[in-house]
Amino acid sequence: MELIFPSNIYCMCCERPIDSKMPYSLCGHCVRIVQWVDGNSCSKCGKPLYNYGSDTCKDCSLSNREFKRGFTTVRYSRLERDIIHQFKYRDRSYYGEKLAELMYERILSEDIDADLILPVPMYKLKERRRGYNQAGLLARALARNLDKPYYPDLLIRNLDTRPMSSLGAEERKKNLEGAFSVDGDKAHIIKDKTILLVDDIFTTGSTVNACSEALRKFGAASVYVLTFAAGS
Ligand SMILES: [Zn+2]
Ligand SMILES: [Zn+2]
User: Fold this and answer.
1) Domain ranges of the chain
2) pTM score, two decimals?
3) Which protein residues have their CB within 5 A of the ion that is ligand 1?
4) Ligand nearest to the CA of 60
5) Distance between alpha carbon 13 and the CA centroid of its chain, in Å?
6) Into which CATH architecture does domain 35-77+111-230 fall?
């Protein structure tokens, strides 16, 4: 595939041809407008903060987090949304490798020693329809870069939850009740382990929170979260 459709010659955002020496498959224009997450982010979940004065976001100050800390790479705004849209709905599964490179560099700057890498799982039927779980592609590439084991099917999504964007906080919580569990045959793998949980987007964090809750219930020591983009 790489020979027929080399993934490095077109920009992930604007699809203009790019110089093969450019890192990250972004053209010179787009690499400048990507909004990298800087120091002004929530000390708990990693989401960019829009106003100074507090070191945690509203969601973290209002609700209990089951994960230890979250990290993200870019702010979720228009350009970043376009990249993720291409990745998820336009069959650009090879973007996974490119985005994971950026996430790898992000997590390297943190002092996290995870034992294993897991993706936020997709409902199986949905995954079959799309052909891939985008979080799985990110997690797999990251695990390879970090030289850590990757388990795509350890955490299970039991329910095809409703899209969360239209729901309020209470509804989100209800929507996710019982949504995730751990494969009983593999539960020993996470016992007392530190897990790096990977997803593409972080908004309120209710999905990764529900995943972390299930992992801890099944014996994981702690869960860190890494996403490509975060924002409201
Ligand atoms: Zn571009
Ligand atoms: Zn937060």
Assistant:
1) 35-77+111-230
2) 0.91
3) 11, 13-14, 27, 30
4) 2
5) 19
6) 3-Layer(aba) Sandwich (3.40)
